[in-house]
Design brief:
Mean pLDDT: 93
Strand content: 5-15%
Strand order of the largest sheet: 6-5-4-3-2-1-7-8
Low-confidence stretches: none
Distance between the termini: 23 Å
Structural class: alpha/beta
Helix content: 25-40%
CATH superfamily of one domain: Aldolase class I
Shape: globular
Largest sheet: 8 strands, mixed
Length: about 350
C-alpha cells in the first residue's frame, strides 16, 4: 500500500509505483467470494519469460513493488521461487497474496530472505466458517499452520514501526461480522496488517454469497468500532470512510493489474477487459502481448483511470477527503456494470460503501 501523498506525487509525475500480476489460475481452495473464480480445475499458467518482460517494462516506469496475486494461489505457480528471486534481484519488493496453505517453514524462510512481504488469509477464527468460505474442509487448519510458519520466520517483526511485512486479508460479510474485533486485536498485537476488505458483488460471490453482503449501516458500525479500538489500545487514527479499513485504496492512481491473459485492468474487480463496449474489432486492445506496458499506461483509457479522482460523481466528487480517499472504484464499477451502466460512468460513480 502507498499513502495518499506518494500516490498523488506518482500520478502527477507519470510514475507507476506497482503492478499486480496473475501467475496462474489454479488454486487449492474454492473461495466462495473469489473474483477470479479460481479452483483446482483451472489450469492457466503464465509464461515465466513473459512475466519477466512485463516486470522489466514496469521497472522502466518506476515501480517499487510487484504484487504477485496469482489469480489463483501463486505458490502453485511452477516458477514461483524463480519469479520472487528475479523481482528481488531488480531491487523491487515482491509482495505475495497467498492463502498460506502451502506455506512451509522452509518457504517462509525463502520469502523472508528475498525481502518479500506476504498477505495471508484469515476470514474466520471458527473452523466451520473458514472452511465454508474457503470452500474446502480442513482449510482453517492449513491456513493457521501457514500463518504460524510466517510468524516463526520473522515476518511479524518489523524493522521499524509501520514497516510491516505480514498482513491478513479478511473479507467481511454477514457470516464473520461478529468476529471482526477479535481478528483485529490479533493482528495489531502481532504486528500484522489487518487487510479488512468488504465482500464485493463480482465473480463467484454473485452466485454463492449474494445474501451475505453487508449493509451500509453494518459497515459503518464495525468501522467506527475498529477506529475506537485503534485509538484506545494501539495509538492509530485513521479516516473511517476509506474502502479498506484503516487504509485508503488509491490503486487506480499508481498501479496496474495484469491478468493471466495479459489484459490490463486498474485493479482486480475493475474488469474493463470483460466489457464489450471497450473491445476493438472484437478484442480488448490493452493487452501486454499487443501493446507495451508504457503504451497502455499512457493510453487515453488509462490516463482517464489514473485521473478518476478528478471526475468522481455524487458525494465522492464533493468530498473534502478526496485527497486521501476515492472510495472503492472496483465496488462502484461492479455495482454499476451489474445495473447496465456504461463502464466509464460506472468507474466514476460515488462509492457504494461510504457512510459519510
Amino acid at each position: 500500500m502507498y499513502g495518499a501523498q506518494e500516490a498523488q506525487e506518482a500520478r502527477n509525475s507519470n510514475r507507476l509505483l506497482a503492478i499486480r500480476l496473475e501467475t496462474n489460475t489454479s488454486c487449492n481452495l474454492h473461495c466462495r467470494y473469489c473474483y477470479a473464480q479460481s479452483g483446482e480445475d483451472s489450469v492457466k499458467i503464465a509464461d515465466f519469460n513473459a512475466l519477466k518482460r512485463i516486470i522489466s517494462e514496469a521497472k522502466e516506469l518506476g515501480i517499487k513493488s510487484v504484487v504477485v496475486i496469482g489469480g489463483g494461489e501463486p505458490t502453485l505457480y511452477p516458477n514461483f521461487r524463480e519469479l520472487i528471486a528475479y523481482i528481488d534481484s531488480l531491487g523491487i519488493v515482491p509482495m505475495i497474496f497467498s492463502n498460506t496453505v502451502l506455506m512451509t517453514e522452509e518457504l517462509a524462510e525463502f520469502l523472508y530472505g528475498h525481502n518479500a512481504s506476504v498477505m495471508g488469509k484469515l476470514d474466520s477464527l471458527k473452523p466451520e466458517v473458514q472452511d465454508y468460505l474457503a470452500g474446502r474442509e480442513g482449510a482453517f487448519e492449513d491456513i493457521k499452520t501457514g500463518l504460524e510458519n510466517l510468524i516463526k520466520a520473522g515476518f511479524s517483526n518489523p524493522a521499524e514501526p509501520g514497516k510491516l511485512r505480514l498482513g491478513i486479508s479478511f473479507v467481511s460479510n454477514k457470516m464473520n461480522l461478529e468476529e471482526i474485533e477479535e481478528i483485529w486485536h490479533f493482528c495489531r498485537q502481532n504486528n500484522i496488517f489487518p487487510n479488512m476488505e468488504i465482500l464485493t458483488p463480482t465473480g463467484r460471490a454473485n452466485d454463492e454469497l449474494e445474501d451475505k453482503l453487508l449493509t451500509a449501516d453494518e459497515i459503518k458500525k464495525y468501522k467506527l468500532r475498529l477506529l475506537d479500538i485503534d485509538r484506545k489500545y494501539y495509538g492509530y487514527d485513521w479516516l473511517p470512510y476509506t474502502p479498506i479499513t484503516a487504509s485508503g485504496c488509491l490503486q487506480h492512481l499508481y498501479s496496474l493489474y495484469i491478468n493471466i491473459e495479459g489484459n490490463v485492468r486498474p485493479c482486480a474487480p475493475t474488469k474493463l477487459d470483460e466489457h464489450p463496449a471497450l473491445r476493438i474489432n472484437g478484442g480488448y486492445p490493452y493487452n501486454v502481448n499487443r501493446m507495451s506496458l508504457k503504451e497502455i499506461y499512457n493510453s487515453e483509457l488509462f490516463t482517464y483511470v489514473r485521473n478518476i479522482d478528478r471526475v468522481l460523481e455524487g458525494r465522492c466528487g464533493n468530498c473534502e477527503n478526496i485527497g486521501e480517499c476515492i472510495g472503492c472504484r472496483g465496488y462502484a464499477y461492479s455495482v454499476g456494470i451489474n445495473n447496465g451502466i456504461d463502464p466509464l460512468k460506472a468507474l466514476r460513480m460515488e462509492c457504494q460503501q461510504c457512510f459519510k
